[in-house]
Amino acid sequence: MKNLHFKDFFWCPDLTSTAGYDAIIQYLNDGKRTCKEVEDFMKARASIEERYAKDLLGLSKKVCGHNEMNTLKRSLDVFKLQTEHVSLSHLQLAQSMREEVKKLEEFKEKQKEARKKIEQQMDALHKQKSSQFKKTMDSKKTYEQKCRDKEEADQNMNRNTNTNNTKLVEKLQSKAQQAKLSAEEADRLYQQNVITLGKIRDDWLKEHVNACEIFEKQSIERINFVRNTVWTHLNQLSQQCVTSDELNEEVRRSLEQCDVQEDIEHFVNLRRTGDKPAAPVVYENFYSGLRSPTGPPPSRMPPPAVRRGPLPDPTQNRDDSRHSLVQDGDYSVIQY
């Protein structure tokens, strides 16, 4: 299929019309707007990545497993460290995005300067062409009117050729001659304007073709540049995913080394307090000081009353009894 080009499809039958050129300029302006939109989009994405990176960096500084020990603590330390590395990679991604945005800005400015020169030349030619076209059309109207005046003067002179009024004939002849000279001058001026307009048209055709080629080249470059910029942007995002996964893999490898039983044994060996439980508390009698290591604790009920025997009868005589009197020197209330 034959490639289509601007220079072949943006002409107009009306010499003063700029519809084709205006359509191309509108297309270029739309392309410029697209560049600005992509630029703003990538700036916003870079800002999001930067904020996310700063939030991740702050998160990596928070306490996580501070009191943990052994293999799980090492895994949690790696987890925090790799979170910090992920945040730094997102910060680098934001910087890379801004660099691509800067390239896009420079490209857009370069195309703007190149377009400005061409547009100024084309605007000047359009004004010159329009002005000369109007001048030519005015001279054409004058020429046609002078021709009609000449024909009318000739007809008046022909109608009065047989008259005996010499002065009238001379007057009509003079008027016809003047009309002829005016028509010839109008014809000359009209032809001159047509020739001038033709030269301006030739210059405009040449510049229009040149502008179409330059604008088509700019459009091709713009489409390629924007496409490549977005492609690079996506490559950066994909690389970030790969980097994040590699950093996360480091955490996963560390978690694989986390041994539950080893951590339990580590805690036991580090903080052990003894392998024998405390002995049971035994009852200690305040009066006897005896201990009953195995028996049940004594009852808290008061001891039972001791039954006493019958009182002795003082009227009975006991052979082995000896009574003392108060007057005795060795008197005692104790019986022996």
TrEMBL record:
Of the GO CC terms on this record, one is: actin filament
* Name of protein: Proline-serine-threonine phosphatase interacting protein 2
Q: Describe the location of the F-BAR domain by residue ranges.
A: 4-263
Annotated region Disordered: where? 112-167, 289-336
Taxonomic classification: Eukaryota, Metazoa, Chordata, Craniata, Vertebrata
InterPro entries (alphabetical): AH/BAR_dom_sf (IPR027267), F_BAR_dom (IPR031160), FCH_dom (IPR001060)
Alphabetized UniProt keyword annotations: Coiled coil
Q: Which PANTHER family match?
A: PROLINE-SERINE-THREONINE PHOSPHATASE INTERACTING PROTEIN 1, PROLINE-SERINE-THREONINE PHOSPHATASE-INTERACTING PROTEIN 2
Q: Give the originating organism.
A: Xiphophorus maculatus (Southern platyfish)
